[in-house]
Write a structure and sequence with these properties.
The complex is a heterodimer. By secondary structure, chain A is mostly helical. Chain A has one domain. Chain A is built from twelve helices and no strands. In chain A, helix 3 packs antiparallel against helix 8 and helix 3 packs antiparallel against helix 10. Chain B is an alpha/beta fold. Helix content of chain B is about 35%, strand content about 30%. In chain B, strand 4 and strand 5 form a beta hairpin. The chains are: A mainly alpha, B alpha/beta.
């Protein structure tokens, strides 16, 4: 376990020295600043307590939609971070000759992979939780609205990026850095499209599209977790207000059961086993 | 006590290419063995198998009795790769600290200072690796390989980026290590270097061991040439000590002898003879 910590600490130190975290922090502050400006501007123009003719609380619709948008951006930023921290961890580093000296130490390949994963997953999970909470606080301050659930969405996002980091690290065992980065972003995009198809399917009453979304949630559980996080924002909202939210781009998210959360953990383990087996067989 | 490195029946196939076709090599305690061979002969593959970086198709390798690639083997091993690279963002000192932690070395700052001094980088430990010349990085690589006091050192072309002075430093270092009882397998293209420092030499060509012995054995006497009135006569199997007898016999047979020359081959001759034309893939 000590060796895992050594590898993880070295990985994080590299990101610090290469100013990865500085760039991420500055750009995230810029994103949060723009988000704050946008929400403040919107709620200046909107009466938060206004009800339209059908009884829709416009302030809640606006706040939930904006936070849904922020959550999408947060997941995307977390994914970018996860991919760039891991995309060349094995084959990329081996091709550059960086990996071999580390492996000719009393360090198993499993230890090295776990160290790299621990560093990436911890940073990415902490990052998405922090950004999500920050956007929730901004929405609360500017729009006077707090999501119905806060812990479940935060955990959903954290587990989603931890899964993406695992997929990217596993991909780095088999693919070159460029190919791996492209592959993970395409898988990420496919998951999001499947989720959108599900929302459209629900709106149109199409079982086929909903089935596509459900199957995708199981094949790519990060998508299901994102849907769970999105659904958690307005879990207790009902009536025409909920209907109005569902008509928006971040509405109609389907809440997932405990089984998908458990499957996500099993999936993480399976990806880990796949990566470890591939790494154990790889000639360096 | 098991040998520092033992390789038996080692085979490695990459697709349709047979990189090693059954190699046996042993490096004894405190022995310095040179590994020679043309490009693509299988030298680096052999070293990588001994390090556990490459899995053999058949055969086995062991370091100090432990299977190659095992944690126990790695505890006894130091390695400098041919195509090595270290993180350019950290300093030499930080790199050594990392390897001390991974090797669970308790040498601390004293070990780092001693190794940096040994490779001639005493004043450059705090310098960022990205700003070091290739030669300096290679010296740092040697210091890295010596972290934790390994019993077996695998050096793959350790002087390829060094100038003549740097090479001399490495030669002195290898002799110092031999004095400390460290075993070394030195993979090099520089025959003169190998001839100067190695106790034994193994020559690999086309994935097979084609010659092995001490540099003196390989640079064997190539016969005796006697210049007589009827022309030069070569006694190919004769050695230096046979020369007086040959002369006596020729004179007794009525030949007029004008000169005698003992023929010797250099390690380079032995190498070229062993690997043939090319010898790589």
């Amino acid at each position: 376990m000590n060796q895992v910590r050594v590898i993880a600490a070295f990985t994080l130190r590299e990101s610090l020295r290469r100013r990865v975290f500085l760039v991420v922090a500055l750009l995230t502050l810029a994103f949060l600043g723009l988000y704050a400006l946008g929400t403040w501007q919107l709620f200046q123009e909107l009466d938060k307590n206004e009800l339209d003719a059908a009884g829709v609380e416009l302030g809640i619709v606006a706040a939930a939609t904006l936070l849904g948008l922020a959550m999408f951006a947060t997941l995307f930023l977390g994914t970018v971070l996860a991919v760039f921290l891991t995309l060349g961890a094995v084959r990329g580093d081996a091709e550059r000759g960086l990996l071999q000296p580390l492996l000719v130490r009393p360090v198993t390949r499993r230890t090295l992979l776990l160290g790299r994963y621990a560093a990436a997953a911890t940073v990415c999970a902490a990052y998405v939780i922090a950004v999500f909470l920050a956007t929730a606080v901004i929405t609360w301050i500017t729009g006077d609205w707090w999501p119905d659930r806060i812990v479940v969405p935060a955990l959903g996002l954290a587990l989603a990026v931890a899964l993406i980091a695992a997929l990217s690290l596993a991909g780095s065992v088999f693919l070159s850095a460029n190919a791996n980065g492209i592959a993970v972003f395409m898988v990420f995009g496919a998951g999001l499209v499947a989720g959108l198809l599900g929302q459209i399917g629900e709106g149109l009453g199409s079982d086929t599209l909903q089935n596509v979304a459900n199957v995708s949630s199981w094949l790519l559980p990060f998508e299901g977790l994102y849907q769970a996080a999105l659904a958690g924002l307005t879990a207790d909202t009902v009536g025409f207000t909920k209907l109005a939210i569902n008509l928006g781009p971040f509405g109609r998210a389907h809440a997932v059961g405990v089984d998908l959360w458990l499957w996500a953990l099993v999936y993480l383990g399976l990806v880990g086993v796949w990566a470890l087996r591939g790494f154990a067989r790889r000639d360096l | 006590m098991p040998p520092a490195l033992s390789v038996s029946g080692l085979e490695k196939t990459y697709g349709s290419v047979r990189a090693l076709t059954g190699v046996d090599i042993e490096v004894g305690e405190g022995e310095l063995v040179g590994l020679l061979g043309p490009n693509g002969a299988g030298k680096s593959t052999l070293v990588k198998i001994a390090c556990g970086l490459v899995t053999p198709t058949a055969g086995a390798a062991a370091v100090c009795g432990a299977p190659a690639g095992s944690v126990e083997a790695h505890r006894e091993l130091g390695y400098l790769a041919e195509l090595f690279r270290f993180p350019d963002w950290c300093t030499g000192e930080e790199l050594l600290v990392l390897h001390q932690k991974l090797a669970e070395s308790e040498g601390g700052a004293a070990e780092r200072a001693e190794l940096l001094e040994l490779v001639g980088l005493a004043d450059a430990g705090g310098r960022r690796i990205g700003t070091m010349s290739k030669g300096m990085q290679q010296r740092l690589g040697l210091a890295q390989a010596l972290i934790g006091g390994p019993r077996m050192l695998l050096l793959d072309e350790p002087t390829s980026a060094l100038d003549p002075a740097g090479r001399r430093t490495v030669r002195a270092l290898l002799e110092e290590l031999r004095g400390r009882g460290v075993s070394v397998l030195l993979n090099s293209h520089l025959l003169s270097e190998v001839e100067l420092v190695c106790d034994r030499v193994a020559i690999i060509a086309r994935g097979a061991l084609v010659a092995a012995g001490t540099p003196a054995e390989l640079s064997h006497a190539g016969g005796v040439e006697v210049e007589t009135a009827s022309g030069a006569r070569v006694f190919a199997e004769a050695r230096r000590e046979d020369a007086p007898r040959i002369v006596r016999e020729l004179v007794a047979a009525g030949e007029e002898v004008y000169g005698v020359r003992v023929l010797t081959s250099t390690l380079e001759d032995a190498y070229l003879e062993a690997v043939g034309d090319g010898g790589g893939r």
